[in-house]
Structure formats: C-alpha cells, structure tokens
Write a structure and sequence with these properties.
- The complex is a heterodimer of chains A (about 260) and B (about 70).
- Chain A has nine helices and ten strands.
- Chain A is globular, with a radius of gyration of 19 Å.
- Chain A has about 260 residues and is α/β, with parallel strands linked by helices.
- Chain B has a single domain, classed as Beta-grasp domain (Ubiquitin-like (UB roll), Roll), CATH 3.10.20.
- A five-stranded mixed beta sheet of chain B has the order 2-1-5-3-4, covered by helices on one side.
- In chain B, a hairpin with a 2-residue loop joins strand 1 and strand 2.
- The chains are: A alpha/beta (about 260), B mainly beta (about 70).
- The interface between A and B is medium-sized, with 37 and 26 residues.
- Strand 4 of chain A pairs antiparallel with strand 5 of chain B, so a sheet runs across the interface.
Chain lengths: ~260, ~70
C-alpha cells in the first residue's frame, strides 16, 4: 500500500506473501505474454500444474517464475480422487521443493466444481504429511469450516465455476466464510473483470486468485494491471469501512436556510 | 525388459533403475519428480531403485496451469 497508508501483509502458513493477488499461469498464449502479465500484476505467488514431462517442451514456466522472483504454488488440477491429489501433491513437493499445495479435487469436467468428500479427505492426508494446504473449495461455509478444522492454511472458495467469468454468484456465502474463518480466505475462480476482484476484497477476502480473467483478456498485461489496482482498492475499502446502505437519500450538502 | 514411461513402452537392459528410465526419456534432472506404480520415488533413491518388468514410471514437471 502507498501514501503512508498502513496494511498488514498476507500471511499463509506462517509465510508472508507480498501481494494479495495470486496469479495462475494457465491460458496464456506464450511465455512472453505471461511474463508481461505477471509483472504488471505485481503478484508474489503463482500457480503451476503438474504434468508428464515433455522433453521437447522444457521447463519454461518454472524458469520464468524463478527469474521474476515469484514463489511457485503447485496445484493438483485434473485430479478426481483424494488418492490422485495426494500423489500429485507429493510429486509437486519433490519436483519443486515446496510444501505449498493448491489442492484441487474436481468432481466432473463439465462444472469443474470441487468434490467436497474427496477434497476433505485429501486435505486431511496432506496436512498430516506436513503440507501447507490451500484448498480450492465450494462457496460453502460448512465445508470451509471443516477444511480449516482439518488444518488447512487457507480456504479458497470459488466465486463461480473455473473459467466462467461469472463473478461472485453468492456474495453472502463468501461473507459468511470470511466471518467464520480463522485462516486467510482467498477468492479463487470465476473472476471476470476488475470490479469483481475489488468486490471479493470488499467482502473481506484476504486475497484473490485468478488466471483466465487475465490470460484470456484482450490485453493480458493491461488487465493484470487492472486486477492489481482492483485488489488494492477493494482491500483499502474493506479496511476503511463502507457506509451503511440507506433506503432514502441523505443530503451531503448543508440544508438551505 | 519392458517398462512404461509416461504411458509409452520402453525396452531397457536389466537391471534398470529409475535413473535409467529418466535417461531413456531424456528428462531434465531438475524440476521433475517420479512415481513408480503410483508411489513417489524420492530423488535420493533414483539410482538404486530397481524397476520390475512392466513397471509404470510417471515423470512429472511443472507446466502452465491454474
């Protein structure tokens, strides 16, 4: 934050994250576009997926993140069961030398919604195995509470399904998750444009995680910049405390004598 | 001896280690992790881990995603 206005850093699992905008890398047309977007976003933590080695393709995204000084957040995207997700997390920890894991356990390809039963099972196993677990979860206050009780370092409810850009479909659920959470709440998935990222922060989320809204925007670098400003603006507005909503007007100029 | 590396069949001379499988694949030595038959094999064990016939070796790395 600038201009002498004080804010605390985001802390996840005991580590400070210098930006409240967590980025994904999926969907960028090439690494040069991705690099400009990541720089413009000001992000300090960025997701990658784990896939079979393609000897021809190399390890470009890892080299890029290292060069930019951005911490890597591996995910378990594509996993459908707790067993698959736990193995993928272990492989990510081994390959990338990090105990951070964005835990995704998806129920089906059409909705890409989290499978809550498998998700909670995987979270319990990974916490027991020493991971710092950031679960991508439904916007369900009960599930969020159970994930926190299982020892997750954050909870990451969706605004709407992955890649839809439908924004935050149930703001009241997000507020309830925020009100009850003792760990950071990261709005993950569904953001389409900057106002929705600001809304997430105004609702009290501690951070926003997005990818598609930037990487598939007409101008990814410019949208990344917009998202950075939106997250900062929404955070500042939350800390400032918005006025109550009123039914009738209230004059902001003195009454005429 | 036949083993499966990332879903493709390879013939390796016996005895074959995880390290031999990585060489056959041409995989980079950093930024990757290996599972054999759905169990993680830590890097420290790659040289001494003996693959059985028809072992399924998965070699993963980080790609754009999420």
């Amino acid at each position: 934050m600038t201009d002498g206005i004080v804010d605390e850093p985001l802390v996840v699992g005991g580590r400070k994250i210098a930006s409240r905008l967590i980025m994904g890398t999926g969907g960028a047309t090439n690494l040069a576009v991705l690099e400009r977007a990541l720089v413009a976003s000001g992000t300090a933590l960025t997701t990658v997926a784990m896939r079979r080695v393609d000897a021809a393709a190399g390890t470009g995204v890892l080299d890029l993140l290292r060069r930019l000084g951005i911490e890597t957040l591996p995910n378990t995207a594509g996993c459908r069961t707790a067993a698959e997700a736990v193995l993928t997390a272990r492989l990510a920890r081994e390959a990338l030398d990090t105990d951070l894991i964005k835990l995704e356990v998806i129920a089906d390809e059409r909705t890409l919604l989290p499978d809550p039963i498998e998700l909670l099972d995987a979270a319990e196993q990974l916490v027991a195995d020493g991971f710092t677990v950031l679960p991508y979860t439904n916007d369900d206050p009960v599930l969020a509470r159970k994930l926190e009780q299982a020892g997750c370092a954050a909870v990451m409810p969706l605004g709407s399904p992955i890649g839809t850009g439908l924004g935050i479909r149930n703001p009241h659920n997000i507020e309830m998750i925020v009100a009850a959470a003792g760990v950071p709440v990261v709005l993950d998935a569904g953001i389409g444009t900057a106002s929705e990222a600001a809304q997430a922060m105004e609702l009290g989320c501690d951070a926003v995680l997005l990818a598609t809204a930037v990487t598939r925007a007409g101008d990814p670098e410019r949208m990344a910049h917009a998202m950075r400003l939106a997250v900062e603006a929404g955070r500042a507005a939350r800390l400032a405390g918005r006025i109550p909503r009123r039914y009738w007007a209230q004059a902001s100029s003195p009454a005429v004598d | 001896m036949r083993i499966w590396i990332n879903g493709t069949s390879h013939e390796l001379p016996e005895p074959a280690s995880v390290h031999d499988a990585l060489t056959a694949l041409g995989a980079p030595s950093t930024g990757v992790a290996v599972a054999v038959d759905d169990e993680l094999v830590p890097r420290a064990d790659w040289a001494r881990y003996r693959l059985a016939a028809d072992a399924k070796v998965e070699v993963l790395t980080a790609v754009q995603g999420g």
